[in-house]
Amino acid sequence: MTRPVCVLVGAPGSGKTTVGQALAAALGVGFRDTDHDIAQIAGKPIPEIFVDEGEEHFRALERDAVAAALTSYDGVVALGGGAVLAEETRAALAGQTVIYLSVELPDAIKRVGLGAGRPLLALNPRATLRHLLEQRRPLYTEVATHTVITDGRSAAEVTAEIRTLLGR
Question: How many domains does the chain have?
């Protein structure tokens, strides 16, 4: 069975896509974002999936996309911020090298803005993002092999730390 070099988890604005692309390039492997996979499969952007079919439908697509990526991809994989909410996903992450990109509220807001294109942040983005960070942090920690603090750091600095942790 094929498995990723590492899996990146974290809240919106933690840098999963930016760091994931930089890390994959530095390691000479591919990069895969499960949110992109979901949009491809559904044939529409994630905000439209939420509006048209609802969050439950999106989460089902997400569980399938994550399971596929974890068993068939050998590069760097970034999971959507809420992927760890699914018990099946947390179980599937056992035995994987999981990097939790930790971010605090001020940096997350600077990076994501106040919710453009992010369905869960559409209403009261600051309060919602604070709630998501508090709700999901224990789950990110539970699945993490390593935790990397991203606050106040460039993607290059975070990428260098992950390469050290991976021994690459």
Answer: 1
Say if pTM beats, i.e. exceeds, 0.85. yes
Residue whose token pair is 């390691």: 27
pLDDT tens sequence across 99-142: 999 998 888 878 776 555 555 555 666 777 788 888 999 999 99
> 1 lies in a domain?
no
In a domain, 18, yes or no: yes
Quick one: tokens of 100? 């939790």
Nearest by Cα to 49 from 72, 82, 17: 82
d(CA 27, CA 53): 37
- Length of the chain equals 168
Q: In this structure, are residues 34 and 65 in contact, taking their beta carbons and an 8 Å threshold?
A: yes
In a domain, 139, yes or no: yes
> How does residue 98 score in pLDDT terms, banded at 50, 70 and 90?
very high
Contact indicator for 38, 61 with CB cutoff of 8 Å: yes
> Does residue 78 form part of some domain?
yes
CA separation for the pair 13, 34 (Å, rounded) = 16
**Range with lowest mean pLDDT among 1-10, 68-77, 111-120, 142-151:** 111-120
pLDDT-derived band at 33, boundaries 50, 70, 90:
very high
What's the CATH number where 79 sits? 3.40.50.300
